[in-house]
Amino acid sequence: MMVSDNTNVYSLKIGDVVIGIECPSCDYMKSMEEYFDTKSVSKNPDILIKMNIVLHQDKPKIPDSLYLTKEISPEGFSMAGDLVKGYFEPLERKGEIWVKNILTKAPITRIFEQILYQAFYSARNVCNYDAFLIHSSGVIKNNAGYLFVGTYDAGKTTVANLSADYHVLNDEICLVSFIGENAYLHSTPFNGLYMGKREGSTPLKAVLFLKHGKAHKLLELSRTEAVITLTREIVPPIGIEEGLSHDTKDSMLKLADRLSRNVPFRLMEFKQDPGFWDVIDSEFK
Amino acid sequence: MVSLNAIPLRNDSFAVREIGEETVFFADKGDELHTLNEIGAFIWNTIDGKRMLHEILDCIVDEYEVSKEIAEKDMLHFISELETKGIINFKQEK
Description:
The complex is a heterodimer. By secondary structure, chain A is an alpha+beta fold.
């Protein structure tokens, strides 16, 4: 746990860990709170990252993925050239980043979130927190968690919109944690398109792989297909100080395999109405 | 046509996991993936960087009820596919 005297530290809770972002000014901290629609939590952060904003006149190319452009050197890391650079010391639980100003402007802030995914994994690693992030939509109904997984156009936000009567956790990135082999679903502060996301955690009851259809149906899916889809949607579990490696995809594959062994899954064909909840309720009584 | 004396080597830039009776290969970078069925996985597991293809063929014939001629044809076709996909390459003779 880190203790900072700086009053501009925005403490962002993601599952059981807290990331402290030391902002350059009080205004930045407020804009973080507004962006994530979440007040800084009072718990001391598990890791602390000092954020510096770099003003610039050039128009840097913004990649879709900061991961694929990440380079590691003895001094630290850089992403997309010098769009983001910095270092993180896991033993001290502290680091510092320099971010070009353009990355803090909407809608590019979605790319900025990728830095925080990596910071989450750094915090996860130092805290030995058994959890991972996954591109998905998450909903709690009757105290049971349902994870909806699919590619960018599979309907994650549609499902969230059609589930507004229930407890929608997120329509972009959810957190899955394990206690033993029991899986739990958690909200994250990351932003999708759904505007009514709420915090929450609950046991994960089922994983539904989304497919647009003409009727609401739950279909059997081979475990291989489930693992392949999950692997593609898991946010690479690398800390901010780490680069992609052979072990990264291997870890993603293992996480997907583990989830598929411990939580029932189905292919869910659905159309644009909330009737899919009837078939879910019927299947997972 | 690859020689039966060739020694296949696994390409380490794929993450591999057995899921039930299938084996999944994911490229370390990007989304490229391949799956192998049970027999494919068996052949994959015999590729250890030491065995020549004729020794792998012997393993297949010992494990499955199949004639050596058919097994050889199928194995060479399969090995050729693995090489094309970059999942294996061959030990260079010195």
